[in-house]
């Protein structure tokens, strides 16, 4: 899929590289999309690994690059780190900005089928086709060393991308992902609008459902998931234990670390972010 030219909105020196923000006209979602990309100095000389980070509800391309401290790690490990926006914006669809947990800022990384939403809310295809190809084409990425990870709704997005596109990503990990989206109140509200009442469509974008039918390459080390014990959403929206049970049934390797005292915030992410870099680095080396 071809992408239009990139327009640079921001360039900031950070450690040995640069944090950029670009926009482009997306043919997939039919509007202008923004994304962040950190490019370390190493990428000026050779192809380097790529990590794609997907953010959570209410986020834009700015949250991760301003709150996580990712630039230090990306520089140290020599990774390009790219993070798209979470949703189409400015499409002017009635109801897409009425609530914080649906629409703009809450695109759920799915391809909607209901006619009202299906033209623009195609974030699954955007992430895994247009955006993916745009980053690989325009930056010095090693195509054999690409991983995906994310937080909350973005953790859900990373997991479903890994399961639905076997072999496209070398590695996957997540912070407090929405593990069973078709059964959480957030997901039920969104999926009813995006897909209508056909719950078989809902299951196609639910990590707990997808792991059972996954037959692609398995990671060398169990997939890393970090979950804060004091996360207010854990038991009502995220359902990590359901995902763990499904992974065990499917013999899919998973490691869920419950981190005592941590909540759902970026303080949690910044604390354990380097562990995820280490995890992906080991997977890239196999």
TrEMBL record:
* Superkingdom of origin: Eukaryota
Q: What is its main location?
A: cytoplasm
Taken from the UniProt entry, a GO cellular component term is:
cytosol
Q: Which residues form the active site?
A: 152 (charge relay system), 231 (charge relay system), 264 (charge relay system)
Family annotation (Pfam families): Esterase
Enzyme class at the top of the EC tree: hydrolase
The species this protein was found in: Rotaria sordida
- What are its E.C. numbers? 3.1.2.12
Q: What is this protein called?
A: S-formylglutathione hydrolase
The family this protein is said to belong to: Belongs to the esterase D family.
UniProt keyword annotations, A-Z? Cytoplasm, Hydrolase, Serine esterase
Q: Which NCBIfam families match?
A: fghA_ester_D
Coiled-coil spans in chain: none
The GO biological-process annotations, alphabetized, read as: formaldehyde catabolic process
Q: Where in the cell is it found?
A: Cytoplasm
Q: Name one GO molecular function term.
A: carboxylic ester hydrolase activity
Catalyzed reactions: S-formylglutathione + H2O = formate + glutathione + H(+)
| Summary of the function given for this chain in its UniProt record | Serine hydrolase involved in the detoxification of formaldehyde.
């Amino acid at each position: 899929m071809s992408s239009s030219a990139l327009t640079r909105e921001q360039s900031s020196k950070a450690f040995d590289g640069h944090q950029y923000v670009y926009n482009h006209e997306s043919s997939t979602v039919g509007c202008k999309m923004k994304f962040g990309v950190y490019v370390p100095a190493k990428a000026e000389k050779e192809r380097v690994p790529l990590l794609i980070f997907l953010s959570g509800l209410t986020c834009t391309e700015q949250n991760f690059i301003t709150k996580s401290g990712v630039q230090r790690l990306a520089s140290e490990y020599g990774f390009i780190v790219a993070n798209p926006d979470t949703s189409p914006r400015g499409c002017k669809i009635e109801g897409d900005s009425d609530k914080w947990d649906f629409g703009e800022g809450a695109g759920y990384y799915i391809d909607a089928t209901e006619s009202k939403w299906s033209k623009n809310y195609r974030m699954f295809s955007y992430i895994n086709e247009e955006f993916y190809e745009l980053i690989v084409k325009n930056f010095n990425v090693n195509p054999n060393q690409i991983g995906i990870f994310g937080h909350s709704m973005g953790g859900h997005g990373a997991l479903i991308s890994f399961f639905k596109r076997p072999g496209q990503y070398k590695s996957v990990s997540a912070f407090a992902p929405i593990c069973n989206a078709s059964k959480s109140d957030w997901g039920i509200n969104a999926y009813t609008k995006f897909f209508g009442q056909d719950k078989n469509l809902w299951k196609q974008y639910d990590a707990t459902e997808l792991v059972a039918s996954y037959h692609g390459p398995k990671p060398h080390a169990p997939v890393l998931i970090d979950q804060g014990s004091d996360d207010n959403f854990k038991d009502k929206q995220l359902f990590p234990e359901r995902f763990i049970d499904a992974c065990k049934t499917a013999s899919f390797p998973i490691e869920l670390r419950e981190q005592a005292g941590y909540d759902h915030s970026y303080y949690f992410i910044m604390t354990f972010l380097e562990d995820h870099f280490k995890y992906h680095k080991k997977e890239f080396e196999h």
